[in-house]
Design brief:
The complex is a heterodimer of chains A (about 270) and B (about 850). Chain A has about 270 residues and is of the alpha/beta class. Chain A is built from ten helices and ten strands. Chain A is about 40% helix and about 25% strand. Chain B has 26 helices and 21 strands. In chain B, helix 8 runs antiparallel to helix 16, helix 10 packs antiparallel against helix 11 and helix 16 runs antiparallel to helix 25. In chain B, strands 2, 12, 13, 14, 19, 20 and 21 form a seven-stranded mixed beta sheet that branches. The chains are: A alpha/beta (about 270), B alpha+beta (about 850). At the A-B interface, helix 2 and helix 3 of A face helix 1 and helix 9 of B.
Chain lengths: ~270, ~850
């Protein structure tokens, strides 16, 4: 596409979104802007109702903004028709959900291959890639099982494999560790980190968990539908190279800072 | 196995919820089975009729008969005149009469009906030029010899073989003839359904006893000559003493009756298929609601709306195809049973079932099409899902249902139209509007009615019954269409019940009035007038009145002249019998008939030709088309009696010898005993049919019940589908409330209480359906009875079937109980921990 590493893959510009329910109108996003360079791992944090998931839906082309612009590799999602946006999702956006959203009647292998099936590709055309991606997420032994036969962590691995299978321009994750235990959550985040490091995968992850956000390069804090703050975690970690690290080799001071980000005061302190 | 396409997802979905889809498939299978069976029957009856007509007519283009009475003969100059007309290729004349055939070695039981046949006397050499005579056994008869060849059907029925002697009940008395051949079931052997006897013209004329007369002519026209035009062109040349009809239009009356019966059965099967489609709609609506998150995921992964719709519709098509194929097997068995019944009822020799490929393809096609159409709306709903909304937790949502404004408009409009539209088939339209409108209104009225009736039903599950009722009140839309399904079935039962009771009642009235409440003596053909004296001589007989029958040609309606008339003697008839008058009375009818030039018509026929009492009806007579004064109209059932004429006008219709007598008996005489005595004496001599009015009623009721048995069978299938629909909804209801049931159980609800909740919900639903079906059924029944009047030409008095109302209530509750069985069992087996974990 002519976009080089470091170039912006995904961008939101002055995005507004409101939901109407009966007579009341809820303004969810009010002028959010962001840019995600290729290979970047961005984490979006914020309290409940801050608009994290709505932002992710707009970035993934699942919904359209009331005003503003969302661009994926230079293509405007907001002005695209539903069918074009659907095809774009199919080919260039991988999404991982909190509740896995696997099709219960299909096996792991079939769930992972679903985007190709939807696109009408012949199984032979994607068999090798399918086997590889299942191997990468460590689900080769479970590929013939149905979701009901798997643990939450295994289901999420399958969902990640499905998202990675299309080699997406961007991988979007909505609370990917929200429905699994801490250890499994850690494994999943490691998978994301590996994908970023080894495949150069661009990732945008919504989470309310500071520990999860700590896996990202950059953290964006949303509050009341606006970007309250952002922190270049990669730079911070480089700066704190000699400080104490936890067992994931992450700076304890930064983690503590992240843990303090969930209140208004904490953000002010960071800015100060 | 690798997933090749999204179509495979449809297949997986089907196999996942096997139980529920099996229920749905049973509904479609039953609907298709009925449709297939009706198609086979319809084809078989039409085919049999075609064969009978074709066998009788052969290559004949036009049939010429003497006008009027069955005993009438063609004027001697007619055959010569016809042969001289332009456009004529061949002319074949015959002398025939209706008779009865007896095997003297095995005479029929005294109380058995005579075996009626048509005896046709032909010039074999000439007749073989237009009709084929294929022999199954023996040889053809010799000219002037007392020999006959007979149809296979009558040969089997009276158990005679080649070489046997048989008795023909001829107008001149019993004639002994020898069977020299039995015809195969083709060509001439198919005439009159195989109940036919062929002999030489001379022998037939001798038995007829009217000299060298002929009473039938078949005309073969030259190539390119149109039969209808030829009749119009040469009508005047032959005078008015003959009727001329296109041969292919023979038996038009019976054909239209068969068509009406087949249409009624097809309508019934359409209802069964519609109900099956309704069940598919319900199932897929629920399935889409259940799989909202799955479809949302697919949309998020890049599936286009049309692909999602395709998955749903393909699933329905697969289900429709599978169940339709199963339906074919059930339908084949049903058709086998039904054909036996129809064969007896219509006295038609029906062909074997064979391999009805056309009806099979049609029925499967309809089954699949209905399934696809029924799933289209749920499919569209699935396709329109926003991926964001669809993937939110707790995706099973209660669909909004009901179109109150449209529903109320249809019901209001339907009721208003009831008072506006006139007679005729169009009368059914307001009723259908009301029915459809009522279906759309159901979701609105379900809440209040469920609350009201729930006060009764909740007692079935003490403590938790209230919760079940509240589910219906609050989540009414899910159950509303199921309820509508049950309501439609119950309304149809009420409507058909009304039709049944109304027709039975009318049959009774008609027969009581016209059969005189005593005994009717009928001959297969014409009778020697002296027989009346013999009949009168029986001890206990008070009075007799002679009747003659024939074919009438009322020119006002332009229909082929194939309607039966009854000619009565006004001097004696009204002392014995009457008419079920719609407009008229005995005294004025008697006076009018005694003056002559008068006619009495069935009410529906008078409506059809738009003539009122005192108006003129134009009838073709042997002296030209003459105006007859309509002196009364009466309610007719079937083709019993037909237009009534007076003996005063006998000469105009070639009537001479009587065809039957009505008898009244003295007070205190045992009618049945007298009947038996008459049968014992008269039957062997003349093959007379002796019946009391009770016999005639019983026979008519048996026929009526036979047809209603078929309709009830269709409704039974629809009711079965209704049960399946209710069971289906209850299963889904239980499934979607698994967690709630777990919670109730954890807080102390007993297993049996949980089970009883299902019963409460099903019973409340069924009771609401029952209550709604009463007004809807009533409206439907008035429409059906009125439209039957014009479709069948019967005058039917509306009688509401009060008797079936409590029976329906019991049935409704039984349906609820049966529909609750599977879901109640499921709920009873739920383990608390699993139920609480259920997603």
């Amino acid at each position: 596409m002519g976009i080089e590493a470091g170039e912006v893959v995904l961008a939101a510009r002055d995005v507004y979104k409101a939901y109407t329910q009966g007579d009341s109108v809820e303004q969810v996003l009010s002028g959010v802007s962001l840019e995600v360079p290729r290979g970047r791992f961005l984490s979006v944090m914020g309290p409940s109702g801050s608009g994290k998931s709505t932002l992710l839906h707009l970035l993934g082309g699942l919904d359209t903004p009331d005003s503003g612009e969302v661009e994926l590799e230079g293509a405007s999602l907001a002005t695209m028709g539903d069918d074009d946006r659907t095809r774009l999702r199919r080919n260039r956006i991988g999404i991982v959900y909190q509740f896995f959203n696997l099709v219960p009647v299909l096996t792991v292998e079939e769930n992972v291959a679903l985007p190709a099936v939807i696109a009408g590709q012949a199984p032979a055309a994607y068999a090798t890639k399918l086997a590889e991606v299942i191997e990468v997420v460590g689900m080769a032994d479970h590929k013939h099982k149905q979701p009901a036969q798997l643990s939450g962590g295994q289901q999420q691995r399958a969902a990640i494999a499905r998202a990675l299978f299309i080699e997406p321009s961007v991988l979007l994750a909505d609370e990917p560790t929200g429905n699994v235990d801490m250890r499994t959550g850690h494994e999943i985040l490691t998978l994301f980190a590996d994908a970023q490091r080894e495949l150069g995968q661009t990732i945008v992850m919504v989470t309310h968990d500071p520990r999860s956000a700590g896996f990202a390069d950059e953290v964006l804090l949303l509050r009341d539908g606006t970007v309250a703050s952002s922190l270049d975690l990669a730079k911070s970690m480089r700066g704190a190279a000699k400080t104490t690290r936890d067992h994931d080799n992450r700076p304890v001071a930064v983690l503590k800072w992240l843990e303090g980000l969930d209140s208004t005061g904490a953000v002010r302190r960071v800015r100060a | 196995m690798a997933l090749k396409s999204l179509g495979s997802v449809a297949l997986r979905n089907l196999s996942r919820r096997r139980g529920r889809y099996l229920l749905t498939a049973s509904g479609t299978a039953l609907g298709v089975a009925v449709l297939f069976a009706v198609q086979i029957m319809s084809g078989a009856t039409t085919n049999a009729l075609d064969k009978a007509v074709n066998g009788a007519t052969g290559e004949s283009d036009v049939a010429i008969r003497p006008i009027g009475n069955f005993d009438a003969a063609l004027a001697p100059e007619i055959p010569g005149k016809v042969a001289a007309l332009s456009g004529v290729e061949k002319v074949v004349a015959s002398a025939g009469f209706r008779s009865a055939l007896v095997n003297p070695k095995k005479p029929p039981e005294v109380n058995a009906r005579p075996r009626f046949v048509f005896v046709i006397g032909v010039d074999l050499a000439a007749d073989r030029e237009i009709r084929s005579y294929e022999l199954k056994a023996g040889k053809l008869f010799a000219d002037r010899a007392d020999e006959v060849v007979i149809g296979d059907h009558i040969a089997t029925a009276i158990d005679v073989v080649v070489g046997d002697e048989v008795l023909v009940a001829a107008p001149t008395g019993q004639a002994h003839v020898r069977v020299v051949g039995v015809l195969a079931n083709s060509g001439a052997g198919n005439a009159s359904g195989g109940d036919v006897v062929y002999t030489s013209t001379a022998v037939s004329q001798r038995m007829l006893g009217k000299g060298a007369v002929l009473n039938g002519m078949d005309v073969v026209l030259k190539d390119g000559v149109d039969a209808k035009e030829w009749i119009t062109d040469h009508r005047a040349a032959l005078g008015d003493s003959v009727s001329m009809i296109k041969s292919s239009e023979a038996e038009a009356g019976f054909r239209s009756f068969i068509l009406a019966v087949n249409a009624a059965l097809t309508l019934g099967s359409a209802i069964a298929v519609f109900v099956g489609g309704f069940l598919i709609f319900l199932t897929f609506s629920l399935a889409v609601a259940e799989r909202t998150r799955t479809y949302g995921t697919m949309r998020a992964l890049g599936a286009l709306p049309k692909q999602i719709r395709g998955v749903v519709v393909r699933e329905a098509a697969l289900l429709g195809l599978g169940s339709s194929v199963i339906g074919l097997f059930i339908g084949y068995a049903l058709a086998f049973l039904a054909l036996q019944l129809v064969s007896t009822l219509l006295d038609l020799r029906l062909p074997g079932l064979g391999l009805p490929l056309g009806p099979a393809i049609f029925s499967v096609g309809v089954g699949v099409l209905v399934s696809v159409v029924a799933a289209w709306l749920p499919g569209r709903r699935a396709a329109a899902l926003s991926p964001v909304t669809a993937m939110r937790a707790g995706a099973v949502r209660d669909e909004t249902a009901g179109r109150p404004v449209i529903g109320a408009t249809l019901v209001g409009g339907g009721i208003a139209l009831t008072f506006v539209v006139g007679q005729g088939v169009i009368r059914i339209v307001p009723t259908l509007l009301v029915l459809f409108g009522a279906v759309l209104l159901v979701p609105i009225v379900l809440g209040p009615l469920a609350r009201l009736l729930g006060a009764l039903t909740r007692r079935l599950a003490r403590g938790v019954g209230e919760i079940a009722v509240m589910h219906l009140v609050k989540e009414r839309s899910r159950s509303a269409y199921t309820l509508a399904l049950v309501m439609v079935v119950l309304s149809m039962l009420i409507a058909v019940g009304t039709s049944n009771v109304s027709m039975s009642d009318t049959v009774d009235t008609a027969i009581e009035r016209q059969a005189g409440g005593a005994i009717q003596v009928g001959a297969p053909g014409a009778l020697d007038p002296a027989v009346e004296k013999e009949v009168k001589a029986f001890d206990g007989v008070k009075a007799t009145s002679a009747l003659t029958f024939g074919l009438i040609d009322i020119t006002d309606d332009g229909a082929p002249p194939d309607q039966f008339f009854t000619m009565i003697d006004p001097a004696t008839y009204f002392d014995i019998a009457s008419f079920p008058w719609i407009d008229g009375d005995d005294a004025s009818a008697k006076a009018g008939l005694e003056r002559g030039g008068a006619i009495i018509l069935p009410e529906q026929q008078a409506i059809r030709i738009d003539v009122k009492r005192g108006g003129e009806v134009h009838v073709r007579t042997s002296q030209g088309i003459k105006p007859f004064t309509l002196i009364g109209t009466y309610g007719q059932i079937g083709n019993y009696f037909g237009p009534g004429l007076s003996m005063k006008d006998a000469a105009l219709f070639g009537a001479g010898r009587p065809n039957g007598f009505l008898l009244s008996v003295r007070d205190g005489v045992d009618t049945r005993a007298l009947r038996d005595k008459m049968r014992a004496t008269l039957q062997p001599k003349y093959n007379l049919e002796v019946q009391t009015s009770d016999d005639i009623k019983e026979e008519a009721h048996a026929q009526l019940q036979g047809f209603f048995a078929l309709v009830y069978a269709l409704l039974f299938v629809a009711a079965l589908v209704g049960i399946l629909g209710l069971a289906n909804t209850m299963v889904v209801s239980v499934l979607s409330r698994t967690r709630e049931v777990g919670m109730l159980r954890s807080t102390g609800a007993l297993r049996r209480q949980a089970r009883a909740m299902v019963l409460v919900e099903a019973a409340t639903l069924a009771l609401v359906a029952y209550v709604l079906s009463l007004p809807v059924g009533w409206l439907l029944s008035t429409g059906i009875v009125v439209s039957q009047r014009s479709a069948l030409g019967f005058t039917i008095d509306y009688v509401f079937p009060w008797g079936i109302i409590p029976i329906l209530l019991i049935m409704t509750l039984l349906v609820a109980a049966v529909a609750s069985l599977v879901p109640a069992r499921r709920i009873g087996r739920l383990e608390i921990v699993e139920a609480l974990r259920f997603d």
